[in-house]
Every structure is written in C-alpha cells, then in structure tokens.
Amino acid sequence: MAQVTLRKVVKMYDETPAVRGIDLDIADKEFIVLVGPSGCGKSTTLRMIAGLEEITGGEIAIGGDVVNDVPPKDRDIAMVFQNYALYPHMSVFENMSFGLRLKKVARDEIRRRVNDAARILDITELLERKPKQLSGGQRQRVAMGRAIVRDPKVFLFDEPLSNLDAKLRVQMRTEIKKVHQKVRTTTVYVTHDQIEAMTLADRVVVMNGGVIEQVGAPNDLYHTPQTKFVAGFIGSPAMNFIACRLEEAAGALRARLSDTLSLPVPASRTARYKPHVGKSSLLVGLRPEHIREEPRHPEPDLHLFEVMLDVTEPMGMETLVYFTIEGTEICGRVNPNAGAADGAKMRLAAELANMHLIDDSTGKVL
Amino acid sequence: MTALTASGAEAARRPQYGSISKSRRWALRWSYFFLVLFAIFFLTPPIYMFITSLKSSAEISAATNPWWVYSPTLDNYIELLTQNQYLIFFRNSAIVSVCVVAVTMVISVLAAFALARMKFWGSATLATGVFLTYLIPDTLLFIPLFKTFAFIRETLGIELINRWWTLIILYPTLTVPFCTWIMIGYFASIPKELDEAALIDGASWTQTLTKIFIPVALPGIIAATIFAFTVSWAQFLYPLAFTTSTDQLVLPVGIVTTLIKGDVFNWGQIMTGALLGAAPPLIIYAFLMDYYIAGLTAGATKG
C-alpha cells in the first residue's frame, strides 16, 4: 500500500513562495500527472515528495507515514530525471544495480531483479554497455530500469521525455504507460506537456502559480474545466475566449459577441447563467472543434454565422481556420473538403451546447 | 545602355572572396612556423645539457665547439650515480613529492567536494578565499612560515627546521589551494542530478564521493596530481631556506649546493644531475598527457 498524501504543503525559497499550500491525495497504484507552465511549482512538489527539497510547511505522507524529515533513501521511492542522470562510468547493469548493491542485496537477487527489469524494458542486450554508447531513448529506458529494480513504493518522473525528439517522445509515452500497467506502482509524473498529461494520467493535477487549479480525470478536465486557466491550458489548439455580454430577451439568453453577432445560449444553461446578465467581464469559451463548417443537414443547437477567414492551416485530417471577432483571433476546425481558403468568406457553425461561460475577473468557469 | 552601365558598376562593387582552402593552408603554414620556433626555443637547453653531460671536465673547459662531443664519456653519470649523496637527494625528493601529492589530493578532493556540493553558510566566500590564497606568492610566505617553525621549536621543543620531512608540511601550502580550485571547477561541472540520483539510490555523502564523484572526475584528479607533483619536485626556494645539512637536501638544492664548490662549477655533473632530475616528471607527463589535457579543458564543451 503506498498512497501519497500532501497536506497544506508550502515551499518558500527565501521569501518567494514556490508552492502555496497544496492538498492532494494520491491513491495506491494511481498514475498522477502534475502539469502546468514552467515555474508553477510542479517540479518543486515532486522534489519535496522525493525528499530533495525541504518542506517549508505542511505535511507529506507516503504509505501513511509522515516523511517530512525522512531522508530520500529511507522514503522507498525511485526517481527518473529529465537528463536521465545515469552514472557515466558504470555499465547499464551497474547503473541499475547501484541502489541494490548499496543496500547489500544478495548477488543472485540483484541479477534476477536487473534481468527482470531489463526484460520488461527490452534492454537485455544493452546491460554491458556504458551510457555514452546508448541513444536517448535507450538511456531513458535504463533510467526507468534503475527505478524499477528498486521495487519502490512510489515512482517519481521529472519531465522524463522532454529531452527526446518528438517521434521518440510519443513512442516512450506509450512505453511508460505499458510499464505502469505491468508494474502497477503509485506514480507521480511531472510534465509541462498537456498531451502527455492527458494520455498517461489516471488523474491530472493542473498547477499554476504554486497552487492546484483543478484535479480530475483527463476527460473531466477537458469537458468541465473549473477555471479559465485549465480551460485554456488543456487542449490543443487552445480554447477560444471571446468577450461577450449576456442579454435577456423573452426568457431566453443570448451572448452578444459584437454588434452584428450574438449567439443563443442553450435553454439548459439559462437558469445557471441568468444571475450574470449585464456583467461586464464575461467570456465565452468555445473549443476549436466546436466551431466547424455548416453541416449539409440542419442540426439542433447549432448557430450559423458567416466570417471572413484570415488564415487557414491544413493539417490533413482537418483544416484549422482563423478569423477575427472584435479584435480577438478565433480558431475553428473544419473538414478539409469544406473549401476553406485564406481571405475567403465561409459559413461556420458554433456548437453552443459545449460552450463555457467564464467570469474573467475571478477566472472561474460559471 | 543604362542596363549595361548598371551591370558594370555592380561587377565593380562585387566583393573579393578568398578561398577557404587557401586561407586554411596559410593558417597551417603559420602555425608550423611558430611550432618549430617554440620547439627550438624550449628544446635547446635540454639538448645542450645532454651534450654537456657526455663531456669530460677538460673538454668542457677547452675552447671547442660546444654543440659537439669529440670524446663522449659516461663518467659523469657513473660518478653521480655511485655517489651516495646524489642518491640521498633523489630519495628525499621522491619521498617528499609522493607524500605531498597524497596529502594534497586527500585535502583538496575533500575540500572541493564540500565547497562544490554542500551548501553551507559561507561556502562561497570560502571557495573564493581558497583561490585568493593561491595568489599570494610563495616568496612572501616563507618568512612567516620560518618564524612559525622557530616559534614551535621554542615553545614545544619540536625541531622542524633542517628536516627534509618538514617539506611535506610546507609544500601543501602551495599545492592545496590550486588543486582545490581545479577540483571545485571539475566537481561543479558534474550535473546535480547525478548526486541526487545517488542520494535516492541510498548513497551517503562519502559513498557519493567515492563511488560517483571521484571516478567521474578522474581526469581532473589526474591533472591536479600532476600539478602537485611538478610543484613539489621542482620547488627550490623552500628547501633552500628550510634545509641546510647535506643529508637533508632535495634534488634541486642538492645539485646546486654540492656541485658548486666556491667558484668551481662542476658543469658536467651539474648538467647530468639536472637531466636525471628532470626525468621523473617527464615520464609522468608522457603517460598521463591525454588525461591532463582532458582535465584542463573540462567543462569547455558539454560531454
């Protein structure tokens, strides 16, 4: 059993707070991803769990024991670093067995564990090589192998894929997921890449400015973000935010985006949005995939409008179209055969059932 | 018409590019020129020493061509190597140098590890202080050191002056600061994640030093070792000031004090002694040259 618990954890560097009191419960065998922009405190949080940074305030418990003052080696954790941190003068076998040798584990046992880990990671034939003879992906595997052989309570990953090229990154991402399915150890994984976070995590923790913005399953974060930051951070291309004014007419609400364009708010949201009529700092949040070409057959809850396209970006399976409303650049995703062209007029359809209303002054999704 | 003049003017303005291979050839020529110049400049003295060491005293003082040996003889070598005195100098020098290297490396590796990796109050100031110590010339240090030794003799009754082993205490004042400085730089170039990984793997500070830092920083350690050896082998001023009896002398001072009697210079033996004395560092350099260069250029590029 190795759940990890963070209670009001604070980290100060001199007078600057890096982490401002976060609470997090990580279940046994769970894969948690901490994601956020650089400087959001995600790496610091991970390093506090590892014991590489002292905790200024609050409490961290691993497997039910508070570890605030326990040195890293007694926390029974293993960490994979961004630059792999392989010992350059040791062979792969020596690298992987270093921790076990320090613990004076029997030689046969070491050999068995290293061979098992090597088989899981498919690096059996590399065991006699030195790190400098390995490619980036192989080094990454060895670094993971070094963590696996220790059979720790918790795996910690600190941006392990950011040093790899794009193709290898995708490949290793799948690899990490497979390894977790085989080894089933509680894992805390730090990344700034939201796609990595979405694909790997059981639950994603979005951090910003030293606090947790939202915790949830990848799809929950995507479909029901609670703050503007999460709404904008998760998803690529990012969600469109358009300034709007709520207007009430005959019991129905409309979001007015410009003098000529106002979108009808779905009836199901009327009650929820009604108190905000007339507020000045409202934004409509609409993901690019909810702005698409006019369908051939009419569908309910679609609002059609015509725009002048600024730029189009063909991606193959779809085409991204960019246009401007009241000075805000908006992105939509249309079928590549819909005839979108730079500088051309196009009729688009907004799926308002998937809209979000955001109060920009508080950053909260309403 | 206008088009013609325009293109003519353009041609006139076109810059002259040299060829890369041509400029490379010239660069090579110049570098060979200077390399040969330096080689002549630095090799002439040892060659002259070697030629002189093969001559008898009579031939040295005769007005013949100083660059040619007419009747080569090994008398100087035989005489010197059968003389007990010279062998004692050699032994003293060897013991002192080896001990100084050992003492220096133990102190400076431990000090550098602490200064580079353990952030404690004043560690940065201390690191700069170590370097500043190295900037003080040794000619300024030997008088206060002499006074200190005299004081120790008066108060504790321990005689430190005119004892060859005293040099083992003295030389590290010259070698430790510089070697510590080299090692700080070398240790600082080792990525921080490496000791963090070791820390998580369960290594203590001592194990991190012996199992990770020393093996990884081996080129730097060898560079520092060579430096410490060279300094202690070639040191002249301190042994001249601190040792006087013939049996307490080290090689450089021994040759000068015993082979120059009044105004009689025994040139043949002086040259032979100096040449033989220069051999050990030369042999060490030859074996460790690759490591030495790697050590000096550490951190220049990302390995």
From TrEMBL, chain A:
UniProt-listed InterPro entries: AAA+_ATPase, ABC_transporter-like_ATP-bd, ABC_transporter-like_CS, ABC_transpr_MalK-like, ABC_transpr_MalK/UgpC-like, Mo/tungstate-bd_C_term_dom, NA-bd_OB-fold, OB_MalK-like
Subcellular location: Cell inner membrane
CDD domains referenced in this protein's UniProt entry, alphabetically: ABC_MalK_N (cd03301)
SMART domains to which the protein is assigned, alphabetical: AAA
Topological relation to the membrane, as annotated: Peripheral membrane protein
Family: Belongs to the ABC transporter superfamily.
A GO BP annotation: carbohydrate transport
Major subcellular location class: membrane
Domain ABC transporter: 4-234
Keyword Kinase: no
Gene this chain is encoded by: ugpC
GO function terms (MF aspect): ABC-type transporter activity; ATP binding; ATP hydrolysis activity
ATP-binding keyword on record: yes
Keywords assigned by UniProt, alphabetized: ATP-binding, Nucleotide-binding, Transport
Protein name, per record: sn-glycerol-3-phosphate ABC transporter ATP-binding protein UgpC
The species this protein was found in: Vineibacter terrae
Record-level GO cellular component terms: ATP-binding cassette (ABC) transporter complex, substrate-binding subunit-containing
Automatic annotation (TrEMBL), chain B:
Location relative to the cell: Cell membrane
Stored PROSITE patterns: ABC_TM1
Alphabetical keyword list: Cell membrane, Membrane, Transmembrane, Transmembrane helix, Transport
GO cellular component: plasma membrane
Coiled-coil ranges (or none): none
Homology family: Belongs to the binding-protein-dependent transport system permease family.
Annotated TM spans: 30-51, 94-116, 128-152, 164-188, 209-230, 272-294
GO biological process, one term: transmembrane transport
Organism, scientific name: Vineibacter terrae
The protein's name: Carbohydrate ABC transporter permease
Pfam assignment, any one: BPD_transp_1
Membrane topology: Multi-pass membrane protein
ABC transmembrane type-1 domain: residues covered: 90-288
